[in-house]
């Protein structure tokens, strides 16, 4: 076995992460025994430089809440990460520490089989790094997006309290980019007003980026109302594969 190649994940919290298990299986299948993946719970992004200095890194993933704050510590950004304003993957090479966004690639590839012509408008729940990647992809493919949050800060965004049944019924695509409903709080739902979600029906596609549980309370409700649903597992796998492509120099364009 040669010198170890170190990979890892930073975020807060990270104990629930699927990434280490995913890459261990990938490396076993590829016959690679010189790769290690470690989880690093960093409440404060300012602790990252010390972690960088602790070993010879080959690649790193970034999760909440650092997808945007990490950018100030980097030497460069890929064009897509710069356009989105969020990073979930770091590469280490001659150009220094460069931020990439494979959330966008993963989401784009995951939803492609499910989109139909009628999915021309979308409600995107949340305003963090994952939501930024989702909005970027949807806008690129010509879908009109309205972002929803508890306290909108940007012109054009709306509050949950603004949503009504008729409005939800008129928008055929809904994407949850918030952690609401994630394990262990699996009964939680995004704070839609009473009756607003009843606007969902057979013409809707409802996507939740959460992967644990596989069916969130939101997806259960949407399915009962007749909507088609998709969880975050396929996006998670696809964004991880795209990160590996970047780390190994195999990344290409969609």
Description:
The chain is α/β, with parallel strands linked by helices and 254 residues long. It contains eight helices and twelve strands. A six-stranded mixed sheet has the order 2-1-3-5-6-4.
Counting DSSP H or I runs of 4 or more residues, the number of helices is 8
Rg, nearest Å: 19 Å
Instruction: Report the structural category.
Output: alpha/beta
Q: What would the average pLDDT be, to the nearest integer?
A: 95
Shape descriptor: elongated
* Total beta-strand segments: 12
- Topology as a string of helices (H) and strands (E): EHEHEEHEEHEHEEHEEHEH
Largest sheet: 6 strands, mixed
Bin the helical content.
25-40%
Pick out the low-confidence regions.
Answer: none
Q: Which percent band covers the strand fraction?
A: 15-25%
Could you tell me how far the N terminus lies from the C terminus, measured between alpha carbons in angstroms? Answer: 34 Å
Order of neighbouring strands in the sheet with most strands: 2-1-3-5-6-4
What secondary-structure arrangement, pairings included, does this model have?
Elements: E1 5-11, H1 19-30, E2 35-41, H2 48-52, E3 57-62, E4 76-77, H3 79-84, E5 89-93, E6 96-100, H4 102-111, E7 121-125, H5 129-140, E8 144-149, E9 158-159, H6 165-169, E10 173-176, E11 205-208, H7 217-224, E12 228-230, H8 233-247
Parallel strand pairs: 1-2, 1-3, 4-6, 7-8, 7-10, 8-9, 10-11, 11-12
Antiparallel strand pairs: 3-5, 5-6
Helix pairs in contact: 4-5, 4-8
């Amino acid at each position: 076995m040669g010198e170890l190649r170190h990979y890892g994940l930073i975020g807060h919290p990270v104990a629930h992460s699927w990434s280490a298990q995913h890459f261990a299986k990938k490396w076993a299948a590829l016959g690679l025994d010189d790769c290690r993946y470690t989880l690093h719970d960093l409440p404060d992004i300012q602790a990252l430089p010390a972690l960088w200095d602790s070993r010879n890194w080959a690649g790193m993933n970034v999760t909440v809440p650092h997808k945007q704050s990490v950018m100030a510590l980097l030497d460069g950004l890929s064009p897509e990460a710069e356009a989105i304003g969020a990073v979930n993957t770091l590469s280490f090479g001659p150009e220094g520490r460069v931020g990439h966004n494979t959330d966008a690639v993963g989401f784009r590839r995951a939803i492609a089989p499910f989109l139909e012509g009628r999915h021309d408008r979308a409600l995107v729940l949340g305003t963090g790094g994952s939501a930024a990647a989702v909005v970027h992809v949807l806008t690129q493919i010509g879908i009109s997006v309205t972002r929803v949050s508890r306290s909108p800060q940007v012109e054009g965004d709306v509050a949950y309290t603004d949503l009504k049944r008729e409005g939800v019924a008129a928008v055929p695509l809904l994407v949850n980019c918030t952690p609401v409903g994630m394990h262990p709080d699996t009964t939680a739902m995004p704070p839609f007003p009473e009756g607003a979600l009843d606007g969902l029906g057979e013409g809707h596609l409802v996507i939740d980026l959460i992967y644990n549980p596989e069916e969130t309370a939101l997806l259960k409700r949407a399915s009962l109302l007749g909507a088609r649903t998709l969880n975050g597992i396929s996006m998670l796998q696809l964004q991880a594969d795209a990160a590996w492509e970047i780390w190994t120099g195999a990344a290409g364009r969609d």
